[in-house]
Design brief:
By secondary structure, the chain is an all-alpha fold. The protein has a domain at 18-45 and 54-77 and 105-132: Growth Hormone, Chain: A. The protein has 6 helices and no strands. The protein is elongated, with a radius of gyration of 16 Å. One of its GO terms (biological process) is response to nutrient levels. InterPro entries: 4_helix_cytokine-like_core, Somatotropin/Prolactin, Somatotropin_CS. Keywords: Hormone, Secreted.
C-alpha cells in the first residue's frame, strides 16, 4: 500500500493516546494520500467497458465521499485546508501522487483503500468520543 510508510497507531489503545490535533492531522493526511490515487482509479475503471454503470457510479461516489469527508473534518475541527503544511510538501506530494498506488492491481488497491478507510473510521470514532463523551463511548 502506498500509505504503508505513514506512521499510524496500531490498535485502538494507541490511537486513544494520541492528542486530538495530531489524530485529526493523521486523518487528513490519510485522506489526502488517497485523493490522487482515487482520481486515477476512477479514470482507469471508466475505460473498462465491461463494468456495469453502477460500479462506475459507486467508484465516483467513493471519491466524492473522501473529498467531502476531508472537507468536513477540516471544518468541524476548525482546521483550514493548509493543515497539511504540518508535513513537508514533498512528503504530501509523495503520498498523494504515489506511482505505487497507481500501479497496484484493482484488488490490491481496494484492499489498501479499505484498510485505510477502516483506520479513518476508527480515528473519527475516537475523536467523536472525545468531543461528545455523553455518547457513552
Amino acid at each position: 500500500c502506498h500509505t504503508s510508510g505513514m506512521l499510524t497507531p496500531n490498535g485502538k489503545e494507541y490511537a486513544q493516546k494520541i492528542p486530538r490535533e495530531e489524530l485529526t492531522l493523521l486523518i487528513l493526511k490519510l485522506l489526502q494520500a488517497w485523493k490522487e490515487p482515487l482520481s486515477h482509479f476512477n479514470q482507469h475503471i471508466e475505460h473498462h467497458q465491461e463494468l456495469p454503470d453502477d460500479s462506475l457510479s459507486k467508484a465516483k461516489q467513493i471519491s466524492n465521499m473522501v473529498h467531502e469527508l476531508k472537507t468536513g473534518v477540516e471544518k468541524s475541527m476548525g482546521i483550514i485546508s493548509n493543515s497539511l503544511n504540518g508535513m513537508e510538501s514533498s512528503e504530501a506530494d509523495g503520498l498523494s501522487n504515489s506511482n505505487e498506488a497507481n500501479m497496484m492491481s484493482d484488488s490490491d488497491f481496494i484492499h489498501c483503500f479499505r484498510r485505510d478507510s477502516n483506520k479513518v473510521q476508527s480515528y473519527l470514532k475516537i475523536l467523536k468520543c472525545r468531543i461528545m463523551p455523553e455518547n457513552s463511548c
